[in-house]
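2024-03-11 09:14:02 INFO worker-7 job=invfold-0412 stage=load source=structure_tokens
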């Protein structure tokens, strides 16, 4: 658990300001829970050959988009009305950035659902589903932990997610090499295997967005921007 000194939220003279900040956090976590569910359902739609579930995922994307716009408006109003400073300002600015990452995770879920429908119509690919399950579970855990790190303002947990991102990249590269080898050995399955490769790419991107959220959590808690920096440098920031 983060130390009390790392808590972004102070007690403001205005109780309404406190309520607005807490509402912003709550709505962000609601959106996070929805996109996490979207990715999970899209993977199940693919593996279970369930085109109806895939259609539901695609339809729900409109709700994700609306939540993004609502949160952007809410954060902008707080900036205009309250003119927050220090940690409060970092929270609001970070939420604006992280909402964009969540919306893009929703887009990746929609993309996976689209390919799930395509493969349901063409016939499932002969290879790649084990890799989809494995990488899917990995990036879902990262996304869940990133949202939990935000909820608890836990910079150390956020740092662990940054470390995991490299592992996901390595798993993605290994999976694509396996599929490429299989396609060269049996060209009849190129089209369906290419769909699986696009799905793996979408999952790898979900991991990237989870990492982006983790980086913003560290910024909120520590006040230092760790984007585009090696994990070793982020470790120094979190350790201070």
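2024-03-11 09:14:09 INFO worker-7 stage=emit residues=240
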């Amino acid at each position: 658990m983060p130390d009390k000194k790392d808590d972004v939220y102070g007690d403001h003279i205005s109780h309404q300001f406190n309520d607005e900040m807490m509402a912003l956090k709550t709505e962000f976590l609601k959106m996070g829970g929805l996109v996490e569910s979207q990715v999970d359902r899209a993977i199940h739609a693919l593996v279970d050959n369930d085109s109806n579930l895939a259609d539901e995922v695609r339809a729900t994307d409109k709700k994700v988009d609306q939540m993004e716009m609502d949160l952007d408006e809410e954060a902008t109003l707080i900036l205009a009305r309250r003119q927050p400073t220090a940690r409060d300002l970092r929270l609001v600015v970070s939420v604006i950035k992280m909402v964009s990452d969540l919306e893009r995770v929703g887009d990746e879920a929609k993309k996976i659902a689209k390919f799930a429908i395509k493969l349901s119509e063409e016939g499932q690919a002969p290879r790649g589903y084990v890799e989809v399950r494995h990488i899917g579970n990995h990036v879902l855990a990262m996304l869940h932990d990133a949202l939990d790190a935000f909820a608890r303002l836990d910079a150390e947990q956020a740092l662990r997610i940054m470390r995991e991102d490299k592992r996901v990249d390595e798993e993605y590269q290994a999976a694509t090499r396996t599929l490429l080898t299989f396609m060269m050995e049996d060209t009849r399955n190129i089209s369906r295997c290419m769909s699986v490769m696009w799905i793996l790419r979408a999952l790898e991107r979900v991991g990237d967005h989870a990492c982006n959220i983790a980086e913003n959590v560290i910024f909120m808690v520590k006040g230092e921007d760790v984007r585009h920096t090696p994990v070793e440098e982020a470790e120094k920031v979190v350790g201070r």
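2024-03-11 09:14:09 INFO worker-7 stage=report msg="The chain has one domain: 13-239."
2024-03-11 09:14:10 INFO worker-7 job finished
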